[in-house]
Each structure stands twice: as C-alpha cells, then as structure tokens.
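Researcher: Let's try something more involved. This one mixes different molecule types, so please make sure each is placed in the same coordinate frame as the others.
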Amino acid sequence: MNAEAGRGAILEARAKSLRSPRAQPAPADEIEVLLFRTGAERYAIRAGDVSGIHRLADIAPVPGAPRAIRGVSLLGGEIITILDISILFSSQGRGLADQRHAIVVGRNARRIAILAAEVEGMCRVSLGALRKWPGRSGDGSEEDEGWIEGIMDEDRSLLRLPVVLKNIEQEVRNI
Amino acid sequence: MTIQNRVLMLLLSLVALTLIVAYVGVSNLGIASTNATEIEFRIVRSMELAAKVRYLTTLNSANAADLIHLYQSGRTVEAAALETRIAETASEIDGEIEKLAKVMVRPEVLRELRSALKDRRDLRHRTVQKIKEKDFAGAVDLRVREAHGKDAELARITTDIVDFAQKQLDDATSAMTSASQGAYQLLLAISLLSILVGAVGGIFIYRQIAGLLLSTAREVASAVAEIQAAAQEQVSSTEEQAAAINETTATLAELRETSRSTADRAKAVGDAADLGTKSTQDGRSRTEEGSWKVIENRKRVERMGDTVQDLSTRIRKIGEIVVIMNEIAEQTKILALNASIEAAKAGEDGRGFAVVATQIRDLAGQSKESAGRVQSLISEIEKATEASVKETEEGGRAASEAATAMDKVVESFREVERMNDEIARQVMQVAAASRQQEVGIDQVSTAMTETDAAMKQSLSAARQTLSAIRQIESHVRSLGAPLGA
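Model: All components are placed in one shared frame. Result:
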C-alpha cells in the first residue's frame, strides 16, 4: 500500500511539472512577434504578417533585381521572391551559406520571403516598451526610412514590415 | 856443396870414426871381461871341487875309523853297510877329481892328487883287509898311518889346489882390473875426442840450425801471429755468434711466449666467438619469437582497427540518424512555429493551440538540442574513432615496420651468426697455427740451445786455441830471442 501511494505521489509531481501552462489573456498593447536572426543581427516581425516558415532550398538569382533581392525560390509550391534584409541595413550583404530559413510574409501577390539564419521563436512584446531606433549611424542624424518600428530587448529590431515591402516594391518599379 | 857443408861432413866422419874405434875397444873389453869371467868361474869351481874332495876324504877317513870299531865290536852287518858307503864315497871322490881335472889348469897337481888318492885307497883296502882278518891292531896301525900320512898329504894337496886357484883368481882379477882401467882410459879419451868433435860440429850445426830455426821461427811467429789474429777473430766471431744465439734464443723464448699467448688469446676469442654465436642464436631465437609476437600484435591491431573502423561506421550511421533526427526536430520546430503563427492569427481562439504549438516547439528545440549534443558527442566519438583508426593504422604500420625491422634484425643475427662462425673458424685456424708455430719455435729453440752449447764449446775451444797460440807465440819468441830474433 505504501509503495503504491508513493508511486502515485511521484507520478502526480511529474504531471504537475510537465503540465501545460495555462493560457493567459494578452494585454491590449501587446503584440505577438516572430524572432529571428540573420548573422549577428536580431530581428522581430509581427506574427500576423507571417504566412509560414520554410526550410530554404535552392535560390534562383534574378538578373537586374535590387541587391536586397537574392532571387526566387520554390516555397510551399509557390515561387516566392527572397529578400535579404541585412543588405537593407548595411552596404555589404552576407553569404547564403548560413541562411537556412525563409520566412514568408505578406498576403496574396505581395508575399515575399525573408532570409533568416535561425528562427528563434515567438514572444509577446509590449509596444510601449519599445525603444526608438537610433538610426544606422547610431546618433539619429540620418533620415529615418521608417523600416524599424522599435528596439526590443537584446537590441532586437522590430521591423515595420509594410514599409519595408513598400520600399522594395518601389525599388523594383524603379528598375 | 858449400864449405860449411863440407866441414860438416868431415866432422860427421870424424865422429863416426871415433864411434867405431870406441865400439871396437868396448867389444874387446867385453871379450876380455868374458874370458876373465870364465877363468874366475873355473877357479871358483876348482876350489869348490877341491873342498868337496877334501870333505869326502875326511868323511871316508872317519868312516874307516868307525869301520874298525864296528868290526871290533862284532857288528859285522853294520860294518858291511859302512864299508859299502865308504866305497860309494870313494867313487864319488873319484868323480869329483875327474870334474876337478876338467877345470884344473895344472896337470901335475892333478896327478899328485890322483896318486895320493890311490895310495890312500890302497891303504884303506889293506886296513879293511886287516879288519876282516881280525887283525885289529894292524888295522889301527894302518888307519893311523892313513890319518897321519895320506890324509895330511891329501889335505895339503887340496889346500894347494885351493891356494893356487885363489892365486889364479887374484891374478885374473888384477888383470881384469888393469884391462878395465885401460879400456876406461881408452873410452875416456875417445869420449873426450868425441865431445870435442861433437862440440865443434854442434857449434857449427847449431849455427846452421839456429839460422834455419831463426828463419823458421820468424815465419812461424808470423804464421802464429796470423793464426792468433784469425783465432782472435774466430773468438770474437764466436762470441758474437754466441751473443746472437743468446739473443735469438731469448727472442725465440719471447716469440714462443707470444705464440702461446696468441694461441691462448685466439682460444679465448674462439670461446668468446662461440659464446657470441650462442648468444646470437639465442638472440635470433628470441628475436624470431618477438617477431612472431609483433606479427601477432599487428594482426591484433589490424583486428582492433577493423573493429574501430566498424565502430566508426556504426557511429557514422548513428550520426546520420541523428542528423535525420535533428532535421526532424528542425522541421518540427518550423511546424510548431508555423502552428504558433497560425494560432496567433486566430487570435484568442488560437491561444490554446498556440500554447500547444509552443510546447511542441520547445520539445522540438529540446530534441534538436539533444540531437545537437548527440551530434557533438558523435563528432567527438568520430574524432576519437578517427584518432583511434589513425593510431591503429599507425600501430599497424609500426607493427609492420617492427616486424620488418625484426626480420632485418633476425637476418642481421643470422649474418652475425655466420660472421661469428667464420670468426670462430678463423680464430681456431689462428690458434692451430700458433700451436704449430709454438711447436716449431720449441724445435728451433731446442736446436738453438744445442747450437748455443756447441757454440760455447766452440768458443771454449777457440779460446783454448787462442791461449795455445799465445803460448806458441811466447815459445816462438823465447825460441827466437836467443837466436837474435
């Protein structure tokens, strides 16, 4: 009897430790974002903008496209443009060796995939807790294109994805 | 012929003549001496015979007296026997007288003696006749006359004979003495003459011989000097030869010792070579055993390498599986993220699903993390396995190289063994040659010892020869000095 009782206590303790956390209602200014990394730079985008996450296969380069457009790839049965946002924030682009993920954002015909070395996960972030982006030079002297909505913890940039996509579309049109 | 030789011949002739004269004189003297001796013998003989006749006569006279007495006593038998003896004595007296007659030089004395003896015999017959007639007075009378007459006469005659013989003897002795003195004087004269002639001739001959001797002595002295020099050289040469022989003998002794030492050392080297051969054989056996062990170890290492290789293959497969698991975890994570995104799009309705998706994502992350750790461990294991494989391969190569080296060592041992055998064979030949050399040296040493003894004898003889030559030289000098050399 005692042994049976002891075994039951152990199982109960294990179940408590493994039980799912109870879902909590989200605050009004909080949004859920997807965290990813490209090289050493950390980014976040709103989860609602994300269509899906795919393993990146081959990329077919597109001649004459802007530098940030690495090419197109077949993702989920669709040909989707691949965007390297690291090129947007720096003059030099990174290699494709460690860019193993493609985060598909946008809707319908305006969908585009963002290269990511690693998709770190999701989290909720309060918009009021975001810090202002200091600009590329770090002193706010340059013109703000409005690509970054704010700076999260760990100096992670929360991208303002519609502005980024609009800018890309504008560059494509200018070709 | 030179004058000197003629004079020499003359002197020699004189000496020969003198010697002949002396020989004749001495011969005559000997004859005279012989004659004198003969005369002396006869005289002495006659004196003896006369004395014997006188004795026999006296004896018969006594017997006659006894005969008278016997007949007077009536002892006729004895008287007859005595008469017989008287007759025999008378016969003996006659015989002695005959002998005396042969040596007597005076016949008248001999006749007188015979006459006296006849008278005396007649008187004795008459005396005997008187006795037989028993006329003893007449017999005594006759006996007295015989005794005082005839016997005295006979005694006188015999005395005269003896005296005469004595006188002849004295005369002969005197004559012999005179003859001897004459012969002596003659011989003395001849001797003096011979001495004189001999002296003159001797001086002459002496001068001749002295010259000859001087020349000869000088030649002899020269020859002796040359012989002495040669003998001295011979002595020196012999001494040098003796010294050389001594040195050679000593050298041979040293050489013999050296040969003996060489033989002993060669034997020691041979023994050492044998030991080396045995040690080499032992080392070869152990090396072969070690080589077999190395080969066994190489096989074991190869088997271990195969095992490690198999283990590496299995680990690689495990790694591939882990990669697949990692990929699955990654896919799961992506799916969970997509689920989370869809849940987020669903709003409050998808919140519970988002929680599940988050848990799935966390599990996928844990799986991926575990897969990463496993992959890391597998990588480490692969590295270790690769290192083991490499070490095993290195060990195998080392074992192969060790086996090859051991084979070479074994071959080297065999080569050393062959060389040791060759060395032992050569050393034994050296030892045998040294023994033969030692035997030969012993024989040579024995011969040298005998030669040394002979050389010493030769040296002694040479020294004696030299000494004799020096004595000869001294004698030659002493011989030549009086001659004016």
